[in-house]
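Sequence in, structure out. Go.
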Amino acid sequence: MSERTSAPCRCGCADARGAAAHAIVAALAQDDLDAAIALGLLSANFDDGDGIVCRHCTGACTQALRSAREARLRALAARERYRARNVRLQRRADERAAQRAATPAPTSAADNSVGDTIADTAPPATQRPALPSAAAAALARAKAKAAQRGPT
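Output:
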C-alpha cells in the first residue's frame, strides 16, 4: 500500500497532497474496490477542502474518481433498499400467517344443522385456509342455488 501512496496519479499529477486520491485511482484501475474503500473512497470528507479529491489532477481523473464513488454509493443504497424490502415482505408474510392461524373456523348452529346437504368432513383439529373473496362468493352462490333445488 505504501507504493500506492507515493506513486504519481494515472493522469500525471505528482502533487503529494493528493496522495490519497492517487492511491484510490490506482486501486480502481486495478479493479480493487476493497482497497479503494479502505483508502477512503466512501469517506465522509471526500469533497471537503482537505478531503480525498486531489485539486491538481485533471478534470477527467477527478470526474472518474467521483463517478466511481457515486456508483458505489448507489450500489450500497440499492442493497439497503433490497434488504429493507425483504424484511418488509417477511413481516407481511408472518402477519398473514399469524392472522390465518388466529382466525377460528366458523362453528355456528346453522352450519352444523341436520338439513345441510354438504357435511364438513374435515377433522376438527385441522383448519382450512381462508378462501379468496371471489372463491367464497362463488361458493356461496353455488350453495344458494343448491338449496333452491332442494335435496336430490
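Check: The helical segments are 2-6, 19-29, 33-39, 59-102, 133-149. The longest helix spans residues 59-102.
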